[in-house]
Write a structure and sequence with these properties.
Blueprint (H helix, E strand, L loop, with lengths): L1 H13 L3 H23 L6 H36 L3
C-alpha cells in the first residue's frame, strides 16, 4: 500500500497549480480511507506497517505544504513583474 503514496510524491513535486494539488490530495485521502478501513477489519494491521504508512502520509503532507508555498511564491513574484509602476 505504500507504493501508491510514494508515487504521488513525484506528482506533488511537479504540480503546476493548486488545482493539481487538490486533486492529488483527494487521491491521498482515498488511499488513506481504504487503508484505514482495511486495518479496521484486522487485515495486515501490525504496528510496523501502520507506522510506515503514517510516516509516508506525513511526508506527503510536508511535500504538499512545501509545493503550495512554492506555487504561491511564484505567483507573487509573477505579480510583481507584471504590476504597473
Amino acid at each position: 500500500m505504500l507504493e501508491p503514496l510514494y508515487e504521488l510524491g513525484n506528482e506533488i513535486k511537479s504540480a503546476k497549480s493548486e488545482i493539481e494539488l487538490d486533486d492529488i490530495e483527494k487521491r491521498i485521502d482515498n488511499i488513506l480511507k481504504a487503508e484505514l478501513a482495511r486495518n479496521a477489519k484486522g487485515d495486515d494491521a501490525d504496528g510496523a506497517s501502520m507506522a510506515a504508512f503514517s510516516l509516508a502520509a506525513q511526508r506527503l503532507q510536508y511535500l504538499m505544504s512545501h509545493r503550495r508555498a512554492m506555487l504561491r511564491q511564484t505567483a507573487v513574484a509573477g505579480d510583481e513583474i507584471t504590476a504597473p509602476r
